[in-house]
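Target protein
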Amino acid sequence: MHPRDQTIFALSSGRPPSAIAMVRVSGPQAGLVLTTLAGKKPAPRQTSRRLLHDGAGQPIDDAVVLWFPGPGTATGEDVAEFHVHGGRAVLAALLDAISKIPNTRAAEPGEFTRRAFENGKLDLTEAEGLDDLIHADTDRQRRQALRQLQGLLGDRARDWRERIIEASALIEAGIDFSDEGDVPAELRAPAVKAIKALYDEIAKVLATQGHSERLRDGLVIAIAGEPNVGKSTLMNQLARRDVAIVSPHAGTTRDVIEVQLDLDGYPVTVIDTAGIRETEDPVEQEGVRRARARAEDADLVLWLVEGKRVADPGVMLALRKAGEGDRPGGPVWIVRNKIDLGVAGPQGEFGISASRGDGVPELVEAVVKFAAEFFGSSEGAVVTRARQRDLLGRAAESLHRSLELVEEGEELAAEELRAAAYSLGRLLGRVDVEDVLGAIFQKFCIGK
């Protein structure tokens, strides 16, 4: 039997031990699993309390079971659920009993969702939204993922694809009636109008997204500077816990330390880097090299300066050049430490006391404002992944070329319209996407 025709099962709730655990079964043998362990199937979509037994007749647990006959289920297949006590021994016995029923096997990561996709219960953009929702760490990430799961992009892409197909039908009808005089021109005019409207809509979506895709990964901020200027202390202030070693000895931080923060709903990764200086220590040299590389790639660099010292102009120039043009990297902010000792920096710098926390709230407020500008307005974001942007861009390019070619010949314009519809089909996961399915669904947790 092909693996896709087998019945799959998995723990679909949190890791044990827990108060209650839910084991989900999906596939043609789901009903047999239910009757084997629970005696008989309950009424569809109604809970029923049963004493579960394994194949040898030994009791497993006093549980609640549910039966969902396909195709009106989350996966499009027959589904059974077992709600049992969440002890490890209970789950081990239940999973073992299910595995002994013929043509059942443990589910792979994301396999329940993949079956839902393959059975037409959701498109690929909605599956990506579900993945993002599972991994959302902040409220803004959650809201963006939920909109995607509810079909924000998928519904629009389906509408665009249908309208492209309608315009293509007009163009191709003109080809069929090319010997009828004015017929091709009469059909061409409404087709061109529809194509132009489609192109404008998709181009507008692509133009207004900004960095909305980056909300999934978050903003990267590097704390950099010379050794022993308070970088690790500032990191601990931002994280509100001791995540970095704080020591009066220079060169304590040898590697890059990262911490994930939620700043007003924006996901932020703060990096504490090794002190950047000339050194003969080979281990510290490697730390400095890594620090420079991460600072150059960061979306924002907080360059920490101690007291009245002046920031190294050579390093500052290198970091600012890293953010120019198409290269990665963002702006560099000068943060002057130890204002509690009466040190005041020039206009445009941030003054803090990393040890006491003075000035840190103002710095965080500025970072939140920067994040809001960096991500743009994510509330209406339609595109949330690079894959989606790429395929929408291809569709827009094909539509634009069809407008340029329609006067030269309907055949060329029709071919570009087919290419645009194909790109939107790939976006939805309905044509030729086998190469990306594994990469998407293997990131899901087992049981989802």
